[in-house]
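Supplementary Text 2. Reproducibility record for the structural model of the 40-residue chain.

All settings were left at their defaults, and a single model was retained for analysis rather than an ensemble. We include the record here because the model underlies the residue-level annotations in Supplementary Table 4.
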Amino acid sequence: VEGVKNLTGVAGFHIMAYDWESSVSEIVKATGLTKTGRNN
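Retained model, structure tokens:
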């Protein structure tokens, strides 16, 4: 995630958790991809 976040032109991520939707919130928190961590 850190490597992709730092790529020029990357504006966001799409997290797909097919048949494991309950894990998305935990993944977002663990990677620091929260609204408070955004630059805009």
